[in-house]
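[job 4471] stage=fold_predict status=RUNNING
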Amino acid sequence: MELLITARANNKQKRIGWVSLQPDGSVSVGLSDSTFVSPDFKAQNFVWSADHRRTIHYLISSDSRTLRPIRNPHLSFHPPHDFHLHANGGNMLFEGIADLDLMLRQDGIVPWIRFVSRAVGRLADAGLTRNPGRARVVLIDAPSEDCSVGFGVDFAAQEQSSRPSDVLVSEWVQWRTYWLHLHGVALPPQVATLSWFHQR
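[job 4471] inference complete, writing structure tokens
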């Protein structure tokens, strides 16, 4: 199943990203835009502690002056504990392990991905889906073409009903033994950024 993250403003639909749910239980989240990384960026996090967990926040900005572009970056979770960041056709940029089931039992919600789009009016138009039988559009009604959209994907042990007033979209998708929470807000126009949380 694929969820297509799309923003709508002035009756135009723009593609932001996608969430792919694979038969083996893997979850991938990708950006339609290119983003940029430091030429020497590569991170590995293969130490994990159930008793002394700490959360690291990795942030990638799309300020291209001293960075190199990566096309359509996507973050993936491969059960039971592998996390990766790839670019299309590129090398592995991030690898890490974490026990998602244990974290959900202890914390209830595990933050994962945060990204910010360019201004909606500068995004590519959303075209037809390649496989409409297994794709669903998650539509975000943006207040204007001049705003950016901040979008997040988290893991959760169960669906929750609360929804902050400033949230443009909040969807809960049940997947395997947990839920994915997809949520988005309007932000001032800015460069695209990609960030993710990883516990060690």
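[job 4471] summary: The mean pLDDT is 81.
[job 4471] exit 0
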